[in-house]
Structures are given as C-alpha cells and as structure tokens.
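pasting input
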Amino acid sequence: MPRAFTPKVVTANALLEGDAVWFTEDNTWTRDMAQAELLTDEAHADLRLLEASARQDEIAGPYLADAKPTNDGPAPTHFRETFRTRGPSNYNHGKQAEV
Amino acid sequence: MYSYTDFDAAFVAERNRQFRAQVERRIAGSLTEDEFKPLRLMNGLYLQLHAYMLRVAIPYGTLNSAQMDQLAFIADKFDKGYGHFTTRQNIQYNWPKLNEVPDILEALADVEMHALQTSGNTIRNVTADHFAGAASDEIADPRPVAELLRQWSTDHPEFQFLPRKFKIAVTGSPNDRAVTRAHDIGLRMVQNDAGENGFEVIVGGGLGRTPMVGKVIRDFLPVTDLLAYVEAIVSVYNLLGRRDNKYKARIKITVHENGLETIRDMVESRFEQIKPGFTGFDQGLLAQIEHAFAPPAFKTASTDGYEAARMANPAFRSWTDTNLTAHKNDGYAIVSVSIKKHGQTPGDATSEQMRVLARIARDYGHDELRISHEQNVILPHVHKSDLPAIYAALREADLATANIGLVSDIIACPGMDYCALATARSIPVAQQIATRFDELKVEHDVGPLKIKISGCINACGHHHVGHIGILGLDRAGVENYQITLGGDGTEDTHIGERAGPGFAYDEIVPAIERLVLGYLNLRTDPEETFLQTFHRLGADPFKAILYPAKEAQNAA
Ligand code: HEM
Ligand code: SF4
C-alpha cells in the first residue's frame, strides 16, 4: 500500500547566501517557514516543486520537506528541518541570530 | 617551504578566472544548479544546511605565517571570524556568499593556496604526518613526495573523472600518524636491507559505510618508482572501479571484489608498461622540491630556563607533559596547540587565534605551522628555551589547553549543525563530553584516549578508528548514537566493533562517562591505556558497563 501523503512545504537554499528559504503561495521565497505554503495534496505539491525548481536564478536544491500546520503557519516535523529554521547549535549564527 | 613556480601561479589564476565567470553565469541564471554543481565542487564549494561552505586545501598540512594570517583575514572579511580545520588537513569556511567566493579564491592565490580538488571524484588533497620534517622517529620528510604527488595529480587529465573520490596519505615515520591504512592509497616510508628509503604501498583502505583496512600491495617500492606505481594503481582503479553504484565505487570495494592478487597483477603490468615513460623528469622535479623542504637553520641555546620554568609552574609542566613531542633536534620540541579548549567546537579557530599562531610561528617557530588530522595546530620547530614565552602567548589567546591525546581531544565532523548529509549532530556531543570530563577532573588520570565522532555513516569524523567511536544516526526521526569500541588509526589499524544498541541524544554523554570511568576500574595499573585494557579483556566488560540493566537481566 502506498504511504499516505503527509503535508509538505517546498524548501531550498537561497542562491547567494545559501541559507534555507521556503516557497510561498504567491511564488516568492521566505526566510520564515511559517509564511510558506502548506501543501496538503500530493499532485499539487509535485506541481509546486516543479514551479519552484524553475526559479533557478533565485535558489538551489529545492525539495519537498514534511511540515505540519500550526496556528502560526507551517512548522517542521523532523529535527533536520527544525535546525534549518534556526542555524547551528554551537554558535548563535544563522537564522536564530537574525530574529 | 615549497613556493609556487610561475607555472603554478598562472595555473591557479586561470582556474580562478574561469570560476569567476562561471559564478557570474550562475547568478545571472544562465547556468542551472545542475550545470553549476560539478563546476563549484571542482573548486571546493559545497552547499550545506545553512550556507555555502568553501573547503580550502592545506597541502600536507603545512602553512607559513603569511598563509595563516591570510586565512584569518578571509575569516574576518568573508566569513564569521573563524574557520574549521578538518581531519583531511583542510580548512572549511562555513558562511561564504556565492558572489564573494571568487574574491576569496583570489585572496588565497595571493598566498599560494587554493581549493582545487578538495571535492569531486578526483585525487584529493594529499595528507601527511603533521610532524613531518620534525619528528625524532622519522626516516625522512614525506612532504616532498606529497608535493610531487600534488603536482602530478592536480588537473591530471586521466584522473578528473574517477569512479569516486581518491585520497592519498604519506608518512615518513614507522609510527603512523597519518592514518595511511584508512586511505585509498597509503604510503609508509620504510628502509630495505640495503638501507635505502622506499615505500610500503597500501591500497584499498577507507572508512565510510564500508570501513576497510588497507592492504599492502607492495612491501618495498623504491622512491624513484613512486609516481609511475601510483599512476598504475589509479589507472587500474579508473578502469575497474564501479561507476554503476556510488556505494561500491571506492577502490576499497574494487580491491575487495577483485581480490588483492588480481589488482596487484594488473597494477604491476600497468606499471611495467608506463614506467619507460617516466624518464627521470619526475626525479629531477623531486630533487628541486626536496630543496624547498630543507630543514630550517636550527639554533643552539641553553634550555636551563625551560627546565626551571617547568619546575616553577605546574600548569606549564602539565602542558609540556601532554602537548610536546620529541623533535629530531635535541634542543627542540614539537608543540601541539590544542584548539579544543573544553566546550569549544573541535577544529574551530577564531581569526584572532589564527593571527596569534602566525605570530608565534614567525617569532619562535621558523615560520612553520601544521594542521593535524586530529584538528589541532602544530608548531613543528620550537626551541625549548622559547617554550615559556610561547606558553604565555598561547594562554592569552585561550590556546594553552593541556589535553592533547586525552579524552577531550575529540575529533568531530560538522554533523547536522552544518552538513547537509548528516543524520545527527556531532559537535554538541563533543562539546558536552569535553565539558563533563573537565568538571570531573579525571582526564589526566584516564590518559591517552581517542574519541572520534561522525554525524553519519560517511565517517568523516573517523569514528571507526576511535578507541571510542560515536556515530550519530537518525532512528525514526530522533537522533541516536552508536558506540564502537577498540578502533585504532595507527600502524595497527583496527576498525572498532559495535558495542550494542544506540543511545539517545541525552543518554550518550552519560554513557561515555560510564564507559571511561568504568575503564579506570578495569585497568591493571595507571600505565595500562584504555586501548590496551580493551585488547586484554575484549569488549564484554565494556559492554557490561554500557548496558548495566541488560547485564542484570541476563544474570537473573
Ligand atoms: C560538510 C561537508 C562534507 C561532505 C558533504 C562530506 C562527504 C563525505 C562522504 C559522502 C564521504 C563518504 C565517502 C565514501 O565512503 O565513499 C566522506 C568521507 C570522509 N570525509 Fe567527508 N564530508 C564532509 C565534510 C568532511 C569534513 C569536515 C571532514 C574532516 C573533518 C571530512 C573528512 C572525511 C573523511 C576522513 C572521510 C572518510 C574517509 C574516506 O573513506 O574517504 N569530510 N565525506
Ligand atoms: S560524517 Fe556525515 S555528517 Fe559528518 S561531515 Fe561527513 S557527511 Fe557530514
């Protein structure tokens, strides 16, 4: 039996800075995952990944990452994706230092 | 030290010019990431979790003070004021911006450095014993050979698209400090019965998901045949190595699947075939290179002040006990500077620390620095009379930790704090172990112990050859850490054996504490090291310490 589809976001690394960005409903990239478009339908998710991938002069390495809905917006479900919203744990660098 | 020839300088400049144009095309959108990726990897540029990462080669780990100063300058100007020294004698910058990378590469070229072939399926930065040219136990300095190999392998047209990455390590000493048996080719200098220098050639070692100890393909290879023989090995690999499966592509698998005998026969016949082409040009080049590695003009001075300072200052004495190694010149010592103060990130040095190290090398160290695969910085030539002053300067820069070879001198890969391939974090585990043992104040009592941590099965942190290895995994969406025991990266290379089920993130440090303190009760006397105790008793008593509950169950 195919595994049930779990909600996703499209994420990638920004072309110049290389940091994590997420794809929004209005086809822009955000550095705040909560602003991302939450994709609950598999076919739509695949389509959005294709559309995001076409934006080669903005990002590198787009992929679909698991996410869950929260009151604030989409949030990560796996610790790797959580780290991407924050930055490394040994220094106050990356996104955690910017907010 | 080796200086670039006009050819070298022009070559690096041309490569940098090409890469600048490629970066411009990528930013303009005319190159896709798929097209650009192999180009950036050829120039050592990775894309990691939070940023790009630039890996810069430090050939055979040797730097002069001007180069170290420039690494500090780059850290300040283009990064966040620090750099990460790695187990392969590279330095990694974790925060470069794509549009600035060409400028970084130019700043490197200004001091004869580059990032070429620090990635991709090519022959990587050739590593060497970090005590090369200084160690008292050395037959000869292996770095001229390493430099020869570098010149031969850089941009070698036949070897730009190997089945997989290819790593070579060289040591000039019978005590292997370069982990030669865990490399695709390991070269160990030995002498034959006639007293001539040559190499024991080891092939097919490697860590990663299928760890293997390298095998001796040639007991004694005269130095004159080195390049032809290495080329023969790489070309046999280039032909036989599997390109159908990335996980079976390294030469260790080629050797394993075809058998050492077959590989040896093929290498020897290829060697006979190409040898006539090596008409002595390489030996002429080697002689020139050797010239550049002539030992410094050692000085003579009284060491009385040093002995007196040792007697007077216990902290200095403790540091000299752990951080010095015998130099081939009696009045001299090799200083290992720990860049692993308890709680710090293993391998990281701030720009300020780099500048202090450069200054010390300039003032007291014949202008030489080394980066060790154990992620520390070496001052290879220091007169003992200068040690008190050096110690004082190191202390001011937070660089005087007396922990070389001890529990807190941990190798750790970047893990999931930086690396896109990671399955768990490794840096915080290293930080916490070091901090904990500092609190317990037992590491000097525990003695020599190598803990090595990797954040995934690629084993960049050498965990397989740690006396205690830690491998971070992702088990059903949570970090989990597997312990291996009894690994060894010296001339007696052993792959550690798995102790049992893994530990959760908050259990791993207590487990290591249990293990190390438990060893204190198992050893016959304070002279018996962790590894010796392990060899004497086997894994069982250590497993019983790690898994007490399970042991109780079995007994019930
Ligand atoms: C962060 C970016 C890095 C990436 C993407 C990366 C990737 C890899 C991969 C895929 C392997 C396995 C190769 C194989 O088994 O065929 C490997 C092995 C290795 N890497 Fe890394 N690595 C990274 C960082 C490092 C660092 C920071 C070091 C040094 C501290 C390092 C040193 C090594 C070593 C020593 C091995 C094992 C020896 C071998 O079998 O080649 N790597 N790396
Ligand atoms: S061992 Fe894994 S996590 Fe660590 S640096 Fe290598 S690839 Fe990354």
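fyi Residues 8-89 of chain A form one domain.
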